[in-house]
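If you are new to this repository, start here. Below is one unmodified record pulled from the training split, so you can see the exact layout before writing a loader.
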Amino acid sequence: MVVEGWVVLNFFCGLLLVLLLVFQRSTSRITTGKRYSAILIMTLVLLASETVGRIGEAHPDNLLFLAQIGYFMIFLLDPVDILFALTYIDCWMDKEKRFGRNVFSYCFQAFAFVNIAMVTISEVLDLKLFYYFEDGLYYRGPYFMVRAVLMMIFIMLLTVYVLIFRKNIYKEYRNAILMLPILSFVGAVLQIFLANMDMTYAGISVGCLILFFSLQSRDINVDYLTGVLNRRGLDIRLEEKVKQSISNGNRFSAIMMDVDHFKEINDHYGHRAGDDTIRDVACILVDIFGVRSHIGRFGGDEFCIVTGMTEKEELEAKIDLVHKAIKRDIKEKNGWPEMIDVSCGYSIYDPDRALSAQEFQENIDKLMYEEKQRHHLNDRRKTERNDNEGTD
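And here is the target side for that same chain:
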């Protein structure tokens, strides 16, 4: 039995992408991890679509519908994969001086959305602009080459983007980041000469492998237990936000949170329960504050959220959601005492005061410990009241 080359290539690329998804789960709660996962998932979807399309094309009598579905997905989502690569690369860049990069980003987004619209319209109205099937055979439409050339330019511009703005990429990440667009472009070029194999997805897969070993599995800014930022990562993000705020006058806010009675959790339920609690709190914070906020484990049972929210009411509403989620997902789920909760301190950064990142953080930390003392005092009073009622 002879196995075609594309089958082997697609199988190993698919296996590689699945393994990368499994092994990079430790960083899946931070922005870089989420965007890296988006590239992997989208490439996997496209690879699966290409495989389904080829199977349908090989058996047009019974499975032509698979070819129609597979090729529609490829033509629809091809540019989105490159757009995801752009957003991932942007995670590793300096957040200042974004004007030139924003122009590139808007052009990439426009191309991706226009492509989705045109492919959908062509399919729905049966215009056969880019591809079509006739008598069970696949044919290229009149605008196939126009789109193919634009896709090549699209991929090439991703490499140009990284080269032009390479000085904006943090120095220690530069070489690894450059591999993704270069290998994607090389794969696209090879596909022209190897029409029977889709080398573009192979190039992206190898680029993702290099990123995993160079960045995702070695990111020193990620907390190993929770997958959110660690103290170093938080310090970097807070410094960036302070500099931007002083420079452009835009405000932001930060929240410090500490798990109440965490020592009692470890003492009564074991350290594994303590670790589970830390992970659960991290998940709650990610769910409530979302990917637009920088969420991290400050140390031990302390967390910090750096967010663009600037209204006191909005911050307090989010904190209230955290209290409710902890009650529902941690206390009630485990049957733990009512005193298990979090103490919070928050503040909105005022650029006119020009506090340093350390001064700002220390102020919030102080507010958090003041609330923690109030919580402990209230808990002691409740315990004493319950003891007295029990004695009576």
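Two things worth knowing about this chain: The longest helix spans residues 357-391. The domain at 231-391 is CATH 3.30.70.270 (Alpha-Beta Plaits).
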